[in-house]
Design goal:
about 650 residues, seven-stranded mixed β-sheet, disordered C terminus, FAS1_dom_sf, Transforming growth factor-beta-induced protein ig-h3, secreted
Length: about 650
């Protein structure tokens, strides 16, 4: 038989490694970190001030933190091994014994004791194949006196049944503990819920596996950090019977989510308490409760697509909700956090179809908010004050489908504009008809405003702009409106390039030059022009004689003016790195940004983004010269520099 090639062998080994469960991968990492201390030694992270220990993954190893709290590294025997006096590490495998004896070896002596008292001992000492999820000694000690008393006062029934609920009638190793599955317990076949998370945490009815895969002659022992109890109620039943969820109960009924919360599956309900609803302004709450679509979005925003037990959260992670949004779920010490806030009041209430955590703040998604409510969490408060003062609030709080282009607060840091009729008209042109999403905008798209203006969309490599204003943050999509935060006040175009130049006294010389060169008709027609427009001062800076000669030479004048024009629209927001723009004369213009000022051919632009219906104008304070064109004596010369150099002598 032919031997397998080395690449095939490596591939097989790689696939075998990839097939390891997350728990085994974390355990392997802990072995690697502990190997310097001898064979079968695992590195363990312990939360300072607690008895909580974790096998370490790569990220935790370098951060030295769990749930934001400092840890210390200790080294102990990996599961299934023990020390030998005088030898390094943990070279010896634990003696293989029955489950009863193994319980005493692995840190679950209390479970062993209660097995004896409840007459479970003969079964777990005898023949068979069992798996027991054995609560640690600390888990038993943490039970309330009342609960513990009810168990030990009736050992032959209550205690025995409780222990049998921790058992499965077959051997189950961590690789067999698949996420979202259930195992039938040995107590009335009632299910035990298994969750095996990507971070290596394994939970059994939300109790964390501490020490797993301890083999016994008649099965396997896993040590867990809690005493688990039977679960027979769905999430919906918990909502219906919990007094503190009365408002949530009514909201669920109104949105027809009862059937979902009763259905099979594995969900996490972040259940807002009555107190959470009471914290919301009454007007806002009544609006949402009276709007079936907003209410459904609100509730779906509180339901995660998978069951997330508190013990599985040892660092921040992003979870998807049924609404399609995401929540940042994390922890800070013993507290769970949502979007960075410790608002979970009661955690890990287990249901047959998932887990419930009570939250004392309502998580309102953008999709249930008005534009004004969206703006409260964005850097556009100054803009919203302007819209309010202009009497435009009704457009931003009602059911009108609109998109708001709101300048960020930075725009008004030097001066806040006065709200008059002119400003009101300008603000109306910041409200676009229809509810848009920036990801569907395309270059050249036309948008209609409530002020009856037409705005153009410009898509650049590094920015998305509407006229001169570029989108400064991800858009927020509310119930009826979408909020675009933009980097400046919008200036809708008022006429063609020629109309704008004629209306501005700074460009009277340029207008005369364009007329002399025969370019006026071109700049009046529909198009997409960028014009770097020299001001009157730019022309006056030229020697008078040269200016006169230039103005008298229509062909040369047209060439120079075309060098100031491009047949595409480039607003300042499109310029971050160097942009090379082909001029209508043929040579390239080099446009760059320096200290927040746009430059063309290294000359600063005096005023940028003067919008026209067929382009954009940038005012410049000097007349730009194409490369290789030098002003000599009495004429603009095409002579290149090399031709002016002295010729070498003939040999």
């Amino acid at each position: 038989m032919a031997r397998p090639s080395l690449p095939l062998l490596l591939l097989a080994l790689g696939l075998a490694a990839a097939a390891k469960s997350p728990y085994q991968q974390v355990l392997q990492h802990s072995r690697l970190r502990g190997r310097q201390h001898g064979p079968n030694v695992c590195a363990v992270q312990k939360l300072i001030g607690t008895n909580r220990k974790y096998f370490t993954n790569c990220k935790q190893w370098y951060q030295r933190k769990i749930c934001g709290k400092a840890t210390v590294i200790s080294y102990e025997c990996c599961p299934g091994y023990e020390k030998v006096p005088g030898e390094k590490g943990c070279p010896a495998a634990l003696p293989l014994a029955n489950i009863y004896e193994t319980l005493g070896v692995v840190g679950s002596a209390t479970t062993q004791l209660y097995s004896d008292r409840s007459n479970l001992r003969p079964e777990i000492e005898g023949p068979g194949t069992f798996t027991i999820f054995a609560p640690s000694n600390e888990a038993w000690a943490s039970l309330s006196a009342e609960t513990l008393d009810s168990l030990v006062s009736n050992v032959n029934i209550e205690l025995l049944n409780a222990l049998r609920y921790h058992m499965v009638n077959k051997r189950v190793l961590t690789d067999d503990l698949k996420h979202g599955t259930t195992l039938n317990s040995m107590y009335q076949n009632l299910p035990i819920q298994i969750h095996h998370y990507p971070n290596g945490i394994v939970t059994v009815n939300c109790a964390r596996l501490l020490k797993a895969d301890h083999h016994a002659t008649n099965g396997v022992v896993h040590v867990i950090d809690k005493v688990i109890s039977t679960t027979t109620n769905s999430i919906q039943h918990i909502v219906e019977t919990e007094e503190s969820l009365e408002t949530l109960r009514a909201a669920v009924a109104a949105s027809d989510l009862n059937s979902l919360l009763e259905s099979e599956g594995q969900y996490t309900l972040l259940a807002p308490t009555n107190e959470a609803f009471e914290k919301i302004p009454r007007e806002m709450l009544n609006r949402i409760l009276g709007d079936p679509e907003a209410l459904r979005d609100l509730l779906n925003h509180h339901i995660l697509k998978s069951a997330m037990c508190a013990e599985a959260i040892i660092a921040g992670l992003t979870m998807e909700t049924l609404e399609g949004t995401t929540l940042d779920v994390g922890c800070s010490g013993e507290e769970l956090t949502l979007n960075g806030r410790a608002i979970i009041a009661n955690k890990d209430i287990l249901a047959t179809n998932g887990v419930v955590h009570f939250v004392n703040e309502l998580l309102i998604p953008d999709s249930a908010k008005t534009l004004f409510e969206l703006a409260q969490e964005s850097e556009v408060s100054e803009s919203m004050n302007l819209f309010r003062q202009a009497g435009l609030s009704s457009h931003l709080t009602g059911s009108e489908r609109v998109t708001l282009l709101a300048p960020v607060n930075e725009v008004f840091k030097d001066k806040r504009p006065t709200v008059d009729s002119s400003m009101k008209n300008l603000l109306l042109n910041h409200i676009v008809k229809d509810q848009l999403s920036s990801k569907y905008l395309y270059h050249g798209q036309k948008l209609q405003t409530l002020g009856d203006k037409e705005l153009r969309v410009f898509v650049y490599r590094n920015n998305l702009c509407i006229e001169n204003a570029c989108i400064a943050a991800h858009d927020k999509r509310g119930r009826f409106g979408t909020l675009f935060s933009v980097d400046k006040m919008l200036t809708p175009p008022t006429g063609s390039v020629m109309d704008v130049l004629k209306a501005d006294h700074r460009f009277s010389t340029l207008v005369a030059a364009i007329q002399s060169a025969g370019l006026m008709e071109n700049l009046n027609r529909p198009g997409t022009f960028t014009v770097f427009a020299p001001t009157n001062e730019a022309f006056r800076a030229m020697p008078q004689g040269e200016l006169n000669k230039l103005m008298g030479n229509a062909k040369e004048l047209a060439s120079i003016l075309k060098f100031h024009m491009a047949d595409e629209i480039l607003v300042s927001g499109a310029v971050s790195a160097l942009v090379r723009l082909k001029s209508m004369q043929g040579d390239k213009l080099e446009v760059s940004m320096k200290n927040h000022v746009i430059h063309v051919n290294k000359e600063p632009v005096a005023e940028s983004d003067i919008m026209a219906t067929n382009g954009v104008i940038h005012a410049v304070s000097s007349v730009l010269q194409p490369q290789g064109r030098l002003l000599l004596g009495s004429a603009w010369s095409h002579t290149i520099t090399a031709e002016l150099s002295p010729k070498p002598p003939l040999v």
